[in-house]
Amino acid sequence: MDKFVIHGGKPLNGTLKISGAKNASLPLMAAALLAPGVHRIHNVPDLRDVSTMAHLLRIIGARVELHEHTMTIDSRDCSFYEAPYELVKTMRASVYVLGPLLARFGRARVSLPGGCAWGPRPVDLHILGMQRLGAQINLQDGYIEARAKELVGARITFPVASVGATGNVMMAAAMAKGKTIIEKAAREPEIVALAEYINAMGGRITGLGTDQIEIEGVSELKPVEFENIPDRIEAGTFLCAVALTGGEVTLTNLKSAHIGAVFDSLERAGFNLTVSPEKVSIQAKGRALPVDLRTAPFPGFPTDMQAQWISLMSLAAGSSGITDTIYTDRFTHVAELQRLGADIRVEGNTALVRGVDHLKGAPVMSTDLRASASLILAGLAAQGRTDLSRVYHIDRGYERIEEKLRSLGADISREDEPIVT
Ligand code: EPZ
Question: Going by fewer Cβ within 10 Å, which terminus of the chain is more open, N or C?
């Protein structure tokens, strides 16, 4: 297992290209099952979660190659319709194959995902969507057993906006008989990208980016080339890193419209941003001003930036409250940040952060992807050395993060971590 060794206190300066979006590439890969043939998806990040999804598609029978960020998926010879527990338990997004498998084979056997580090993450809305489209669903031996002689368009009203359930229903409904309307659909850019990909294949989806999406079923879809969107959470993570350490950094190859809420919060915290459609520069010096926030579905402040924001606020000049309205218990990073000297108290789904003058490096442990990111950020700002263990969590969602940070002047290295028995 690897660990990161970070010596804090170095400002970050320079220019960095943002990688393709993890949370768009995963549904895009699953959607390639809808149209037998050779698909090419550009700007796909080289991440553990991407290779897990590639492995799942290979089990289903596709040929998958990632070469220099272009993914080629040949989905002609798919014949197997199962997503096994061994894979799904490592990556919840495996559930994205449920809709495409039902659409293509009329049946699917997908393991129920386990919980994750911060608690249960149900898939009841995915199941509700498939049932509304006419599938029979059985939950048996920890698996979702789904069958559908024919998928028929329906009106589906979700109680909460769910990124995954919206994506799964869009894929299942793309070739269903008739029209599907999704009410309280997710508006995230990753879902818009998925809809644009399906439309490029010949699909007929309208209402993209709104909370009401309409899908007119078509008889077949064709394989296409497609450009993945940039990773808005990677961009937000790096902006918070610069805000914490000071310096001047320009991020390129991003879509600024995808993370306006993060820009607004950084400006409220006193940082200067220069924003253009595909580039943003941040000039950071001095401490952040305290900024309260609540996470929300797009275009609100993303829950995937909540941990990074808490790290930034731990050194702010005052106290702030950060509430996660999406996941009420996504605070495993707090205990580790406290080991670095952060003054944080969690009450319900709110972290109350009292800014301290400095953090002090210490050994800390990753528990999940975004918690790891928040610990890297804190280590970059802390005095002295921070050892961050179990960095396989970070490799799931950030491509070569230590190399990118080093290119900006950070003192961070990846080292072998002896397994303590
Ligand atoms: C996606 O997860 C992202 N993952 C998550 O990013 C992100 O945190 C989340 O959306 C919210 O933005 C991918 O895109 C691969 P949801 P997803 O369905 O689709 C509840 C990261 O760090 N819900 O939008 O699983 C759920 O409990 C990951 O990159 C149900 O109740 O999230 C949550 O409270 C972590 N039943 C809310 O909806 C369901 O069937 C939003 O979840 C599905 C969801």
Answer: C
- CA atoms of 378 and 360, how far apart (whole Å): 9
Question: Residue 7 C-alpha to ligand 1 middle, in angstroms?
Answer: 34
Amino acid in position 102: L
What's the pLDDT at 119?
66
Ligand 1 centre to CA of 219 (Å) is 30
Q: Are 253 and 278 in contact (CB under 8 A)?
A: yes
Out of 11, 51, 59, 116, the active site residue is: 116
Backbone angles phi, psi at 232, to 5 degrees: -65, -30
C-beta of 326 in contact with ligand 1 (< 6 A):
yes
Q: Would you say the CB of residue 28 lies under 6 angstroms from ligand 1?
A: no
Testing ligand 1's pocket by substitution, the residue of 47, 162, 171, 369 carrying the most ligand atoms inside 8 A of its CB is: 162
One-character DSSP codes across 349-400: TEEEEE--S--B--EEE--SHHHHHHHHHHHHHSBSEEEEE-THHHHTTSSS
> Is the C-beta atom of 124 inside 6 A of ligand 1?
yes
Q: 3-state DSSP call for residue 250?
A: strand
The answer to whether residue 78 is catalytic is: no
Residue 369 Cβ inside 6 Å of ligand 1? The answer reads yes
Q: What is the pLDDT of residues 95-113, one digit of tens each?
A: 999 999 999 999 999 998 8
Strands 212-216 and 179-183: antiparallel
Residue 180's beta-bridge partner residues? 215
Q: Is 119 in the pocket of ligand 1 (CB under 6 A)?
A: no
Burial class (CB in 10 A: 0-12, 13-18, 19+), 115: exposed
User: Which residue lies with its CA nearest to atom 25 of ligand 1?
Assistant: 164
Q: Tokens standing for 411?
A: 């003192």
Cα separation values, 120 from 30, 65, 95, 124, Å: 23, 33, 15, 12
Residue 391 · residue 5 · CB < 8 Å: no
The pTM (predicted TM-score) of the whole model is 0.97
Average pLDDT over residues 124-149: 95
Q: Average pLDDT for residues 227-237, to the nearest whole number? A: 98
